TrEMBL record:
Name by which UniProt lists this protein: Proline-serine-threonine phosphatase-interacting protein 2
SMART domains: FCH
BP terms from Gene Ontology: actin filament polymerization
SUPFAM superfamilies hit by this protein: BAR/IMD domain-like (SSF103657)
Species in which this protein is naturally found: Papio anubis
Pfam families the UniProt entry points to: FCH
Length: 334
């Protein structure tokens, strides 16, 4: 620990001034405020990490991501979803760690507050005592000075009345002078007593001021060290989160390295192939050609219901009276 600097640099020539003490107290208050701000920062960061973790977890578990992929790419996507889920859990755990650090900062801040309170109560009391004794001393000084002026006036009055014939007036002046001398002696003693008391109070105040400076400096050193370590730990936690996330994403990269484009293509072909023979070319068909009803190669045969079959050949010649009969059916009106 460095040598004490507070006790040698926060004095004032004015005995009533507390500017040095007030400056230290203001600095300690600012330090406590800074710890409170960092504590609130940790809480807010924890909320951000938790919100991000939960959103990432929801995204990983609810949002489809290449769900129809197959074979090696499918396995890589499964690893990706698993690792994203793990990263999300790490962010939620980080949020809990940050809240724990914020709690430690709050406890430290409150501990220092209680420690300071004891010293501040002592200093407040000694400041009041010093101010009160200083006022009493100044009042005693004023009274002493006034008594001295009264004595001086009495002496001058006696000197001026040396030629007076009236002995009674001279006697009164001498009595007044004697009284004023007694008053000067009494006020002088009272003044000196207050000066002595004030000096004791001053020495006591200086002693307490030095103790307070040493206590406050030690406390400030402790606060700076604690704050520094807390900040160091915080960035270490963030760095570790990055390292952990990268390790998880490395698993995804490794699974992607195992992904084979050729295997995925072959897998798809083997699972979904429909045949290896393409359709035959479509042939031209002449309507009047005897082969118009021939079935093209590669095409399944089926009854052609869209066309009528060939007409029946008459059994009689055109000159025969029965020519008008087709299979015993008369085409003539009877």
């Amino acid at each position: 620990m460095t040598r004490s600097l507070f006790k040698g640099n926060f004095w004032s020539a004015d005995i009533l001034s507390t500017v040095g003490y007030d400056s230290i107290i203001q600095h300690l208050n600012n330090g406590r405020k800074n710890c409170k701000e960092f504590e609130e920062f940790l809480k807010e960061r924890a909320a951000v990490e938790e919100r991000y973790g939960k959103d990432l977890l929801s995204l990983s578990r609810k949002k489809p991501c290449g769900q129809s992929e197959t074979n090696t790419l499918k396995r890589a996507l499964e690893v990706f979803k698993q690792q994203v889920d793990s990263v999300a859990q790490c962010h939620i755990q980080l949020a809990q760690s940050l809240r724990e650090e914020a709690r430690k900062m709050e406890e430290f801040r409150e501990k220092q507050k209680l420690q300071r309170k004891k010293t501040e109560l002592i200093m407040d009391a000694i400041h009041k005592q010093k101010s009160l004794q200083f006022k009493k001393t100044m009042d005693a000084k004023k009274n002493y000075e006034q008594k001295c002026r009264d004595k001086d006036e009495a002496e001058q009055a006696v000197s001026r009345s040396a030629n007076l014939v009236n002995p009674k007036q001279q006697e009164k002046l001498f009595v007044k002078l004697a009284t004023s001398k007694t008053a000067v002696e009494d006020s002088d003693k009272a003044y000196m007593l207050h000066i002595s008391t004030l000096d004791k109070v001053r020495e006591e105040w200086q002693s307490e001021h030095i103790k307070a400076c040493e206590a406050f400096e030690a406390q400030e050193c402790e606060r700076i060290n604690f704050f520094r370590n807390a900040l160091w730990l915080h960035v270490n936690q963030l760095s570790q989160q990055c390292v952990t996330s990268d390790e998880m994403y490395e698993q995804v990269r490794k699974s992607l390295e195992m992904c084979s484009i050729q295997k995925d293509i072959e897998y798809f072909v083997n699972q979904r192939k429909t045949g290896q023979i393409p359709p035959a070319p479509i042939m031209y068909e002449n309507f009047y050609s005897p082969q118009k009803n021939a079935v093209p190669p590669g095409k399944a045969t089926a009854p052609n219901l869209a066309r009528r079959g060939p007409l029946p050949i008459p059994k009689t010649s055109p000159d025969d009276p029965d020519y008008s009969l087709v299979d015993d059916y008369s085409l003539l009106y009877q």
